Amino acid sequence: MRSNQLYLLAFALIKCILYGFLLWIPTYLNNVGLKDYKSTIPITFNVGTLVGSFILGHFYEDSAHSGRSAFKLHLQKYSLLYCCILLSGTFTVFYLITPQVLAYFILSGISGALLGGCFNMFTSNEVIALTGGHSEDLEMLATLSMAVGNTAVGIVELLIGVTMNVKADAEESKKLFLILIAVAVLNVLVLLWRTKSTKLQKLSMSSELRLSVKE
After folding, report:
1. Which of 10, 34, 126, 151 could form a disulfide with 29 if both were Cys (CB 3.0 to 4.6 A apart)?
2. 56: domain range?
3. What is the per-residue pLDDT across 159-195, written as a single tens digit (0 to 9) for each?
4. Could you give the CA distance from residue 167 to residue 36 in angstroms, rounded to a whole number?
5. pLDDT the model gives residue 107
6. Which tens digit of pLDDT belongs to each residue from 116-159?
7. Domain count, the chain
């Protein structure tokens, strides 16, 4: 599977987590006895998205205009992977702890910063980087990204709807986070696969270049 195809899959999984969280967290909060906060706790997610977008955007801009140290380049290259790993941990904490207002406000903000911020950077920068700036490739990849992403979101929404009853008890409602954890972990594996695939493609191109030079 090529790097672009793995990008489509990773993007689809990111959208699944984003919409799965935002659309179902009010129902979850209602089921665990926090219905008074089902409209306010998600707001911290949106605030976290703004903060995460600003931090990641500033980091990318700073890396592009400064000395581009090996550390910054490494974080740039694997930022999405690290965010998905941290998301898996955040949703695991959501699942394990007893529902508490303050803790949920904090975890929701962290989730927004990791997921929303990374999602915005992913959609604005990664497509251009993958296509090398070619407009035709960019248009095709962007169209496929939306199609694959929306299809995957629909599937996950159906899965959450089937497994988490609207009137479920607190323990049953926690299935929401098990699904989000599973999708986040799957995305980690996809991104690791993409990293390996990209390295193999670069090695192949390098080998072909050396052979053409010899000839």
Report:
1. 34
2. 3-214
3. 777 777 666 677 778 888 888 899 899 988 988 888 7
4. 16
5. 93
6. 777 777 666 555 555 555 555 556 666 676 777 777 778 877 87
7. 1
The answer to whether the CB of 49 falls within 8 A of the CB of 112 is yes
Top pLDDT among 48 and 79 is at 48
> DSSP string of 180-198?
HHHHHHHHHHHHHHHHHHH
Instruction: Please report which helix (H) or strand (E) contains residue 88, including its range.
Output: helix 70-96
H-helix or E-strand containing 37? Answer: none
Torsion of CA 53, 46, 152, 83, to 10 degrees: 40
- Supply the CATH number for residue 198's domain: 1.20.1250.20
Provide the 8-state DSSP code for 39: T
Length of the chain: 215
How far is the C-alpha of 172 from the C-alpha of 165, rounded, in Å? 8
- Closest by CA to 163, choosing from 183, 153, 178, 181, is 178
